[in-house]
Amino acid sequence: MWVEWGAMVEGARGRGRPDLLRRGLLVLGGVAIGAVTSEAWWTTHRRMPIAGGPAGATLGNGQQDVGSGTLEVTWSGRTNQRLVALTFDDGPAPQWTPMVLDTLARHRVPATFFMVGAQVRRHAAVVRDRLSGHEVGNHSWGHRDLAEVNAAEAYDDLRRSHDAIADLTGAPPVLLRPPYGHLGGAVLHAAARLDYRLVLWSLQMVEREFPDDPAGHAQRIVSEVRPGTIVLGHDVGAHRRLVALRGLTDMINGLRSRGYTFVTVSALLGAGVGPAPTR
């Protein structure tokens, strides 16, 4: 404000007093508007439920019930070996999940499926007895954005899905991928309570960029994989996603030609699970 006012005074020579006053009022008006906007922003955010709300990673004032008390977030594996983990979100469903499982079985490739609990309950028969060699992680109950709910709601949602997956597979899931990759504090708290390892991804299938070109899409993914890459795909969703699934064989063959071995996420992260055979 002072720099602007000084410039106005310096440039006032040759100008009339009304012009100078008008410019001064404009500056002061701008400051006033900025102050009102800033106050409105702070007023709004003061009213947001930070404590105990979606941003809060604690619950109440008592002892925190958070399992082991730590939470690890992973985007990719730490390795110099040519290992890659394929992951598929949002299933299971009868239209595409069997196609993915058929392709993986044909090429003896293990993968990690981040399943939605409601889908598991609805379509358990689609994957029952077909998950040997694969891994199943939690992807919430109904794919709502858990970064918008409080810690109690996030926990209830994840717990419900956790139990559905355990019933299906016979073992509780140990990995969590929240919908959209959103990590609100409430999600972190709930994940810690369930002793999850939180897994995101370092490379995502980009179907929109390759309409009707499965081979081109596969080539793009193959060229971008690095040791330890976690690849995000989907076995449920919009029709365009079939580009990636139809090119899955080319993707597998292309990565193998580069010397890559396919493993589950837990194997990639060294969670005590040995790499499954892929040849």
UniProtKB/TrEMBL annotation:
Keyword ATP-binding: no
Listed InterPro entries: Glyco_hydro/deAcase_b/a-brl, NODB_dom, Polysacc_deacetylase_ArnD
Segments forming domain NodB homology: 82-263
Swiss-Prot/TrEMBL keywords: Membrane, Transmembrane, Transmembrane helix
Pfam families, A to Z: Polysacc_deac_1
Membrane-spanning segments: 20-42
Superkingdom assignment: Bacteria
Statement: the UniProt record of this protein carries the keyword Secreted: no
Protein name per Swiss-Prot or TrEMBL: Polysaccharide deacetylase family protein
Originating organism: Micromonospora trifolii
